[in-house]
Amino acid sequence: MQQTQRDTRTHAHKAGGRHDSLHANYNSRQPLRSSEEVERNVPAVAAAAAAESVSLGHEALPRSHMVDAPVPRAGICAAAGREGDQRVSEPWQSKILQAKGEAAAEWSSRAAARYPTDSAALALFRLLHCGSQCKYNLLKTIFKRAHSHQRSVQGDWVPSRFCSITLGGPEEVRGGERGSLSLPLAPSSPTESRLASSLDMNDGCQLNRMATLDTNNNAPGGVISYIGSNGSSPSRTSPVSLCGSDSSNGSCQLSSQPAFPSYFPPSPTGSLVQDSGRLYGTSSTGLRDDASPSSSSSSSLSSSSSSYSSGGSPVGLQVAMDDGRRISPAKSTSSSITKLNGMVLLCKVCGDVASGFHYGVHACEGCKGFFRRSIQQNIQYKKCLKNETCNIVRINRNRCQQCRFKKCLGVGMSRDAVRFGRIPKREKQRMLAEMQSAMNNMANNQLSAQCPPEGLSTGHQQPASPLLCHQPQLAPRSPQQHAASPPQPSPCFAQFSQQLTPPRSPSPGEVMEDVISQVSKAHKEIFVYAHDKLATGPLAPVGSENSLSWESNWLSSGYHGNGPCHQNDNWNSGSAPSNTCHQNNMNGHRFCPSGYPSGETDPSVGQGCPQQGEPRDILLACPMNCHPHGRSGRTGQEIWEDFSMSFTPAVREVVEFAKHIPGFRELTQHDQVSLLKAGTFEVLMVRFASLFNVKEQTVTFMSRTKYSLEELWGMGMGDLLTSMFEFSEKLGALGLSEEELGLFTAVVLISAGGCPWA
DNA sequence: CTGAAAAGGTCAGCTT
DNA sequence: AAGCTGACCTTTTCAG
Fold first, then answer.
1. How far is the CA of A411 from the C1' of C3 (A)?
2. Are A179 and A510 in contact (CB under 8 A)?
3. Is A323 left (phi over 0), alpha (psi -120 to 50) or beta?
4. Where is this region: Disordered (predicted)?
5. Which value, to the nearest 10 degrees, does the dihedral of the CA atoms of residues A406, A412, A418, A424 take?
6. Is the CA virtual torsion A370, A419, A54, A682 positive or negative?
7. How many CB atoms within 10 Å of residue A451?
């Protein structure tokens, strides 16, 4: 059959050229792009727009909404079977729950009305709002993706959420064939994960620079290899060079890039590039205006880069350095090597020399062809004999097709790039215009049927559509533009349109895979410390290299001991918070308490926040806080500022992550804020779990200081401390992969504030 | 218009 | 012998 197809294609090609072939180019498929088809993709596009804009960012989600508001009883409290913080006001709880109910109802009805066929967004809607069974199935899916190490999912764990995560008991369930695009796969084994984690530090887009490619080759050039699960795939997709021995050649040129990756493969989350640039006060250098992969792979990645004739395997490969040295390319002259600052980029799938940026990742010709054939011919590969744990490297990449394909998807190769090919820019704009128009119409219809969404305390005019309201983050547009012209596609938006859900009706499995893909990818890329701490199976020992890398990420991503280095940070723009009562709210969870030495009363209770001049009494026992005891010479307000700012990046990441959950941005801002208010703390609890060393009964803070249980009790950490230890133990015992943790986090966030399983 | 980059196509050689 | 791989090639798109 495959041969038949192949022959057909070949014949067609020979007879009438590529445009007559089965896989004719995009132009021949243009008729498929009807407005309805486009509209079906609106959720995905909206997600892209969400990625692009940051309406729920700083302006739209002021501190008063994010932190000051009392958070409903955290699921974490229930994690240990304890009562939640009774100080959380009932009115707030009911408000949140009501908001959630409204959100869910509206969400579901809206989704059902708009998208009669499954879309990525709808799939998640359904999963999260169609009832307990669906939720249960989702979580089963998560755990079916568990890897070969032992774990268990107790049958009744879902209803009580965290508290039901149990220890022990093997469950050997492997997921089926993956069908997602840009799906970051988890490392194939905990050992590999930990290894990768230990390597993949700081910038999350670590590259392994091998000084030489060939022991016989003294070329000082290097290879940029992606370090990942299998030693060749990255935890991130961003190639950032490390300083090498030939640093004079600019191998450190990228060292000024933010720790938060400034380069992502084309995907919805490609917007992170821009967002991160804004958030972390650094300019994004990885993308040109349209964020096309080409630019990211070559144009910007390596201003000094060049493609030159070479090819072949790393063995014997001759590397041309920037100084022009070139040593006898081993193979033909048509295959090129992708270089970055004089170093060779390797295939993310197998570690071979990458020939370019193919389907969203740097890949070799072999993997490119393999992936293309897999998609074009929809090949169902034989099941892996090794439980899908094959390590895909150059020398054995042909041994297991299933694992190779899985790896291709895992490192971010896009199915849609194969399906659609390259989409002309004008076509992207046309599609965007149609989508925008559709969104406008829907928004108008909604507005006519309901009251305008509750405005946030931003002072901005509330746009009708979440999609539209995100535009202010982009270049200002004239009223005429708003009224008449379709919006100029934002860079990442435009890029994402190239990877839309295909016009055909995807199978439910594919839809789910796409949703999972988006969520897990967002989780992987947004939470800068996700992959090296939490996603690698059992929790890494606190204080280990991993935990330091986690902290390094935080530190390098904008936070420093002396305060944040963010720019355009409207939450914590460097000014002293006029109202720091959010700490008291956090204190309500007794996790980040304003602890006071025993015998002293907490002056902040009922009186607002500590005033200047009383720093000696302030204890902020939160892992995020580098200086829980404060520092000499600092006023109480400054200490609170420190603490506030140390928390900001974490909260921001949660918000960013939420925006990347398919369909989340379809909610009204009110609902989004409600969910975030309810869920941010819970998500952070999940993330903090890795800082709790159950065995040693210690917690490692941002300051890299390890505190014992007794010390923490002394700081005023309450019952939540115990709960967190229990939760950390249970969560860690699951050994969730990064992908699983991402899905879990999404569920926690969207289900926050109450039991979602009821 | 041109060059670069990324897409799809081809087919000799390899593996099963 | 059939199927697969991947190096090489052609085509298409886009930025300058």
1. 26
2. yes
3. alpha
4. 1-39, 173-197, 225-319, 446-511
5. 170
6. negative
7. 6
**Per-residue flag: A395 CB under 7 A of strand B:** no
Cα dist. A81→A249, A692, A726 in Å?
A: 58, 18, 10
Q: What is the pLDDT of residue A365?
A: 92
Q: Give the sign of the dihedral formed by CA A552, CA A553, CA A559, CA A565.
A: positive
CA of A361 to C1' of B11 (A): 26
How crowded is the C-beta side of A689, counted as CA atoms within 13 Å?
30
CA distance linking residue A306 with residue A221, whole number of Å: 14
Identity of the amino acid at A168: G
Strand nucleotide closest to residue A22 (CA to C1'): B8
Q: What is the pLDDT at residue A525?
A: 77
Rg (CA), chain A: 25
Predicted pLDDT of residue A271: 31
A418 touches strand B (CB under 7 A): yes
**Closest CA relative to residue A69, chosen from A487, A391, A456:** A456
CA–C1' gap, A14 and B12, in angstroms: 18
The residue ranges of chain A whose pLDDT is under 50 are: 1-335, 446-447, 450-506, 530-617, 755-758
Cα–Cα distances in Å, from A710 out to A102, A145, A238, A599, A616?
43, 38, 42, 16, 20
DSSP label of A608: -
What are phi and psi for residue A725, nearest 5 degrees? -60, -45
Q: How far is the CA of A621 from the C1' of B5 (A)?
A: 52
Q: What is the pLDDT of residue A404?
A: 92
A2 touches strand B (CB under 7 A): no
Asked whether residue A182's C-beta has any atom of DNA/RNA strand B within 7 A, the reply is no
**pLDDT at residue A244, as a whole number:** 30
Give the H or E element holding residue A437: helix A425-449
Q: Which nucleotide is closest to A266, CA to C1'? A: B6
Q: Specify the nucleotide whose C1' lies closest to residue A362 (CA).
A: B6
Strand C atom within 7 Å of A382 CB: no
Q: Are A389 and A433 in contact (CB under 8 A)?
A: no
Extract the tokens encoding A686.
Answer: 């999940």
Burial category of A568 from C-beta neighbours within 10 Å (exposed 0-12, middle 13-18, buried 19 and up): middle
Q: For residue A520, what pLDDT is reported? A: 79
Closest of A650, A651, A626, A656 to residue A639, by C-alpha = A626
Half-sphere exposure of A581 (CA within 13 A, CB side): 11
**CA A301 to C1' C6, whole Å:** 26
Find where tokens 């579901």 sit: A108
Main-chain phi, psi angles of A636, to 5 degrees: -60, -40
